Amino acid sequence: MSFSYPILPEGHLLAIEGLEPPHIQALLDLAESYALLNRQGKTQRDLLRGRTLINLFFEDSTRTRTSFELAGKRLGADVINMSVSQSSVNKGETLLDTASTLNAMNTDILVVRHAQSGAPALLAQKVSAAVINAGDGTHEHPTQALLDALTIRRHKGDLHGLIVAICGDITHSRVARSNIHLLSAMGAEVRLIAPPTLLPTDVDRLGVTVFHDMRKGLAGADVVMMLRLQKERMSGGLVPSAREFFRFYGLDQEKLSFAKPDAIVMHPGPMNRGIEIDSAVADDPSRSVIGEQVEMGVAMRMAVLDVLARDLRRNA
Ligand code: NCD
């Protein structure tokens, strides 16, 4: 596939907000071709040969880090995982000192996860590498929204006109924020279902419809996207108890029956089973696409790395 324009502004992927629909479309199309190649067991080891990709994760991660590692390796990059617990960050080195160290090693692509919103954008200003935001605080997680869109498109076709219900802990969710921007840009109708305590204060500006009653919010939905209750980001008692939360906002077969009969169920992982989602739904192969989201994660990250590598070549 050839592109006559830069797909990612400034040669980084820091957020979905700011991307135009044709850019999103191009990334989805490219990822779809990687999904097919992956299923056929074909790798593309020339594209990033000789390039260095560093996974710089200041927060825990299983699937996102592994998925970037696999994507980088399938494209031939040298991949290094920097685990923060082993790094000098714990010895008091600042984010920017770490950045200049990595810069001096001629890193080509830096994948960053950080508890502070805006940390990847700050790094992008200071390093010569292309920076990918792998989740920053409660701000954005752009590759997750892209892989979610790819998964939805494979089941529902065009995103335009679909009803997508995003449910649970919206306030703390960078996944929700990125998905809201992407799905709205692509013409889907986004509904948020949450208790008032788990909705961000700027919800009015997001162009979504808000529901506090799960059955009403799920009525007629094509896609049901569940979110993890992020207890580690909560300072006070925003939910009464896990049991209470499950009763009102946990997805089980009964609540799911209000959505369209062919509605798909998604979750970015890791799941709190029995808190935001019942195992009977999460493990139902006729409704749950949670495993496919993980598979599409690798394809989507390959597409993002591919596009960034083209920019690196252009700027070389
Ligand atoms: C999400 C994250 O880290 O933002 N997980 C992920 O990337 N798969 C969601 C979460 O932690 O709940």
Please give a quick description of this structure.
The chain has 316 residues and is of the alpha/beta class.
Task: Walk me through the structure.
The model has no long low-confidence stretch (mean pLDDT 92). This protein has a five-stranded parallel β-sheet. The chain has 316 residues and is an alpha/beta fold. Helix 1 (21-39) crosses helix 11 (290-315). The chain has eleven helices and nine strands. The longest helix has 26 residues, at 290-315. It has helices spanning 21-39, 63-74, 95-104, 119-126, 142-156, 174-185, 214-218, 242-249, 253-256, 279-282, 290-315; strands at 52-57, 78-83, 109-114, 130-136, 163-167, 189-193, 209-211, 223-226, 264-266. The chain is globular, with a radius of gyration of 19 Å. It binds N-carbamoyl-L-aspartate. N-carbamoyl-L-aspartate binds next to helix 2 and helix 6. N-carbamoyl-L-aspartate (NCD) binds at residues 63-64, 135, 141, 144, 174-175, 228, 230, 268-269.
